[in-house]
Automatic annotation (TrEMBL):
<keyword id="KW-0808">Transferase</keyword>
<keyword id="KW-0012">Acyltransferase</keyword>
<comment type="similarity">
    <text>Belongs to the thiolase-like superfamily. Thiolase family.</text>
</comment>
<feature type="active site" description="Acyl-thioester intermediate">
    <location>
        <position position="91"/>
    </location>
</feature>
<dbReference type="Pfam" id="PF00108">
    <property type="entry name" value="Thiolase_N"/>
</dbReference>
<dbReference type="Pfam" id="PF02803">
    <property type="entry name" value="Thiolase_C"/>
</dbReference>
<feature type="domain" description="Thiolase C-terminal">
    <location>
        <begin position="266"/>
        <end position="387"/>
    </location>
</feature>
<dbReference type="InterPro" id="IPR020617">
    <property type="entry name" value="Thiolase_C"/>
</dbReference>
<dbReference type="InterPro" id="IPR020616">
    <property type="entry name" value="Thiolase_N"/>
</dbReference>
<dbReference type="InterPro" id="IPR002155">
    <property type="entry name" value="Thiolase"/>
</dbReference>
<dbReference type="InterPro" id="IPR020613">
    <property type="entry name" value="Thiolase_CS"/>
</dbReference>
<feature type="domain" description="Thiolase N-terminal">
    <location>
        <begin position="5"/>
        <end position="257"/>
    </location>
</feature>
<feature type="active site" description="Proton acceptor">
    <location>
        <position position="375"/>
    </location>
</feature>
<dbReference type="InterPro" id="IPR016039">
    <property type="entry name" value="Thiolase-like"/>
</dbReference>
<dbReference type="GO" id="GO:0016747">
    <property type="term" value="F:acyltransferase activity, transferring groups other than amino-acyl groups"/>
</dbReference>
<feature type="active site" description="Proton acceptor">
    <location>
        <position position="345"/>
    </location>
</feature>
<protein>
    <submittedName>
        <fullName>Thiolase family protein</fullName>
    </submittedName>
</protein>
Length: 389
């Protein structure tokens, strides 16, 4: 029976997603090409063997539109015969790319495929794909949810209120993310996965030295009188400190079968054991990681206690803390090298970034099983179980 294994996993350092960020001058096509080029260099394979490149991008407009993955594939120097496509599962876009790649390999449609992700939020700001769209919802969806859906920040506030997560707890979690990321950087734990680009060799958003008392002085990032009236239970405790950053970055993983890896002389990092994707309440929007975790474990035939490491995207502290409370996961096994609050969240790249960080951490710690999950706009979530080889 065919399987799917990750033979290489790389990422760029993550830059601040603003005009002063270190990667702002790097064109989106070039930013993705950088990871695509490196994943081939590390494996030493002939890129003509690649059957497809699947890239995840969220804001597909401007230089990130028009199947940007194809242009990045050519920019990376791949033969013109190598095809490419771009997918959008919102924040889970490149995790979905990994799932599609694994499914294609297991089914026999591919022997070698690259799954990747990109987002340059400083050059293509979030939401610019909706400019000029007066009604992105439509009458039928509006009719199904007559009270209206809400932005993600409001969903994060609703989650904090429903699960009783305090401002202090969220800020403590955020500080811990920065401390873990700083420690991992200092120990050189990211060096095997990072590809320096445009003078940036480490993740730009990691901060240390703050305290809970200092963070307590930050104001709410999403307060709205309209939503305060509609949702009086909200405590307005989501701030810039306990939410993910806006960032630039890319990542790529090379996926093949165990048999093909042996033929090519490659040593796989991990097997893609089980994948799934689920939908959940689009009002809370960010809670689908809870049923996704349960579903992927059931499909894998594993228990929560079998998982040695978790990567759960830190879109907001409240999301990860609610997930841990509901699933019973041990937070000491979650995002052990920091998460998106510290490292950053370049939307379409984050799924491949989490996968890259996880499979390398599994080797560093001797973990057998790792589980990755991330919330996505619209009430969606991907979940993937990896097995170290």
């Amino acid at each position: 029976m065919r399987d799917a294994v990750i033979a290489a996993a790389v990422r760029t350092p993550i830059g601040k997603g603003k005009p002063t960020g270190a990667l702002h001058e790097v064109h989106s096509v070039d930013l993705l090409a950088h990871s695509l080029r490196e994943v081939v260099r590390q494996t030493g394979i002939d890129p003509a063997l690649i059957d497809d490149v699947i890239g995840g991008v969220v804001t597909q407009v401007g230089e990130q539109s028009n199947n940007v993955t194809r242009r990045a594939t050519l920019a990376a120097g791949y033969p013109e015969s190598v095809p490419a496509t771009t997918v959008d599962r919102q924040c889970g876009s490149s995790q979905q790319a990994i799932s599609f790649a694994a499914q294609g390999v297991i089914a026999g449609a591919y022997d070698v495929v690259v799954a990747a992700g990109l987002e340059s939020m400083s050059r293509v700001p979030m939401g610019t794909n909706l400019i000029g769209t007066s009604d992105p919802v439509g009458a039928d969806l509006a009719g199904r949810y007559p009270e209206g859906l809400v932005p993600q920040g409001i969903s994060a506030e609703l989650i904090a209120a429903r699960w009783g997560i305090s401002r202090t707890r969220m800020d403590e979690f955020a500080l811990a993310s920065h401390e873990k990321a700083a420690a991992a950087t200092k120990a050189g734990l990211f060096e095997r996965q990072l590809i320096p680009v445009h003078g940036l060799s480490t993740d730009e958003g990691i901060r240390t030295g703050s305290t809970v008392e200092q963070l307590a002085g930050l104001r709410s990032a999403y307060y709205s009188a309209e939503y305060a009236t509609r949702f009086p239970e909200i405590g307005w405790n989501i701030t810039a400190a306990n939410a993910s950053q806006i960032n630039d970055g890319s990542a790529a993983v090379l996926i093949t079968t165990s048999a093909k890896a042996r033929e090519l002389g490659l040593t796989p990092l991990a097997r893609i054991h089980t994948t799934t994707v689920v939908g959940d309440d689009p009002l809370l929007m960010l809670t689908a990681i809870i049923p996704a975790t349960r579903k992927v474990l059931q499909r894998a035939g594993l228990q929560l206690s079998d998982i040695d490491l978790f990567e759960v995207n830190e879109a907001f502290s409240s999301v990860v803390l609610a997930w841990a409370a509901d699933t019973g996961a041990d937070l000491s096994k979650v995002n052990v090298h920091g998460g998106a609050i510290a490292l950053g969240h370049p939307l379409g790249a984050s799924g491949a970034r989490l996968a890259t960080t996880l499979v390398h951490a599994m080797h560093d710690t001797g973990a057998r099983y790792g589980l990755q999950t991330m919330c996505e706009a619209g009430g969606l979530a991907n979940a993937t179980v990896y097995e170290r080889l």
